[in-house]
Amino acid sequence: MNLTTRSIKFIKFNIIFQPLLMLFGLLASVFVIRNLGVEFYADYVLLQALIGTIGIVLSLGFIQTITKLWIEYDDAISRDSILFITIIIQLIIIFFITIGVIIYPKLLEIIFGEDFINLFEFWQISLIFISIIISVLCSSVLIAELDNRYTLISSFINAILAPSWLLFVSWNQIYSTQEILSLIIIINFIASLVLLNGSIKYIKNINLVYSIGLQNSLLKKYLKHFLSTSFVRFFVYFSTLPFIAIVLNKFDLKEELVYIAIFLKIISSITIIIGIPVGKVTGVLFSNAFKNKDQKLMNIIYQSVVKYYLFIFLFFFIGLYHSSEYIINFIYQMKIDNDFLTLLFITILSSILGVANWMIQINEHYKLTYY
Known about the structure:
Elements lengths: L2 H34 L1 H22 L2 H11 L3 H28 L3 H6 L1 H4 L4 H23 L3 H25 L4 H27 L11 H23 L3 H10 L3 H21 L1 H16 L3 H38 L5 H33 L1
């Protein structure tokens, strides 16, 4: 099956399933907020912020780098070297994070608040780290191979089981916050194991011993793309929900935190549809064009993506800005100050600028590498 056919199949599956999963998550949030209250949902959002923040630190630019180099180098030895370099860098990052946690055991409490971190035991925090490490390594291989099946199953587990569990506990109301969030962590771990199972067939024949000779030639190219992509991802992080959740929690603005989480969830449900061709496929197509040194196709892809984002994203964001206050007040029975909504809209614009920065970065990177 050629790249174009696989890309089209990949898009079709995502267009069908992902919007349905997002809508189910939205439905669950309505019952959870109404039955369990704002305080609980704020803790749930903070758990997602914890997972997202650790994910940023551990993943950085690995997925984008592996995807790019995996397409450019289609021989087995080069791919072995790419994965070996990834594993080494990740182990170094994990080592320093472990040392940091040992030296500063209260670091997570300082960032996320003592009351929230005390909800979890050591094994739960460890399970979050393990899940993210597995997900980063395995999802990068699956994305590079455009293998949509296990990615969908993993997404299905998180998008169905987690909201279903929240719906169940919102009706029964007999479980503590710690018990509810513990199962969410376990579900996230199970989803990562699905990715591991799906990637085994691509990595089971990897022989890292024979790949050592190519590491020096690949290392410079790997680090160049990895560091530039990581910098952009780190910059964009400051306009995402995990960082916003940390800041709002510091000032004990739980209701505002829940409101912004709902708003961004609505936006995600829309952008998950209109962003699929870009987020899931464009990176692979761009790398394939680069591999063939097709500069004309690279420019066409870049210009098409920029126009796509500028028109579609801004159209939906502006429409939601004028209607979200009434929608959220009616469905979730929450009221919020208009000034906060204005600040929220500014945050969304920052996110758009973050996407624009990513596009500029990837375009300039490929041009510099090409020449």
